[in-house]
Amino acid sequence: MKKSIRFIINPISGIGKKNILPELIQEHLDHSAFTYDIVFTEHRGHARTLSQEAAEKGIDIVCVAGGDGSVNEAGTALINTKTALAILPTGSGNGIARHLGLSLKLKSMIQRINEYKLDTIDTVSLNSRKAIGVSGFGFDALIAKRFDEYHTRGFLSYAKLVLKEFRHYEGISVVLNDNEEYSNLLFCSIANTSQFGNGFYISPEADIKDGQFDIVFIELPPIFGFVGLLISSIRGTVHKSKYVKLVQTNEASIRVKSSTAHIDGEPIDFKDLSINLKSNPASLSVIV
Ligand SMILES: Nc1ncnc2c1ncn2[C@@H]1O[C@H](COP(=O)(O)OP(=O)(O)OP(=O)(O)O)[C@@H](O)[C@H]1O
């Protein structure tokens, strides 16, 4: 029997053209194996509703075309359901897709969907919210918030913003498990995957299938140290930096002073400043 796919396309993700996607799908999807429908998202949160609806209807695959924000919306709606997630990476950073080793070429990625090779990955709960890739508190959350207010997306806008904001940044403190205080931090990341996107690693050895996540504390460095951190992030050696402390666990609590956070790169405000973190092992099927 043919498998069913719902394609969910975020038209504003990244900087490439998404309106050619229906044509690419028509051309390269194996129509002897799959039936499909295509829906474009119209607002924030729409991918979540569309994905949830697909799972309720028993659709086999939700394929989201977007960046990590869209992957979060569509993917977390499929946790512990029979519907698998596929990704067509059309975002600005595509951290989750890169971590999973997916092709960034859309034609190749559609051809990979034809092969229908499934794997199971972990997700992470932050109180009632769910993450797939990297979430965090501090500078990265501030950047996610500012980037969201920007009118242009893409890597260059992102890089400009990071350098501008770093100059005035004052640092945060985080209490881990009610007893270990980390102060003067640039940020604290909760990494289920290895990178933010665009090859900027935060926890190069993170494994999305080990039932654990990494809490990464980055001390606020001077400007030359910040540049060094960026370089080691690209080189994949950031976990060895003197500014970095990494704690691997499957469950923890953290207390933060500011509610500004991001989940998979999307800015959010936590109402509660005490956050329980928990790994949900093997909770999501993905096409790899
Ligand atoms: N039609 C729409 N109009 C405005 N926002 C939308 C629309 N559809 C989806 N969104 C929102 O766009 C945001 C950004 O999407 P996404 O994360 O996929 O792209 P990106 O930010 O370019 O990529 P990345 O996260 O990889 O850097 C998400 O919060 C999503 O909910």
UniProtKB/TrEMBL annotation:
Residues 1-130 form the DAGKc domain. This is Diacylglycerol kinase family lipid kinase. It comes from the Bacteria. Transmembrane segments: none annotated. GO terms for molecular function: ATP binding; kinase activity. GO terms for cellular component: plasma membrane. Keywords: ATP-binding, Kinase, Nucleotide-binding, Transferase. It comes from Brumimicrobium glaciale. InterPro entries: ATP-NAD_kinase_N, Diacylglycerol_kinase_cat_dom, Lipid_Phosphate_FormReg, NAD/diacylglycerol_kinase_sf, YegS/DAGK_C.
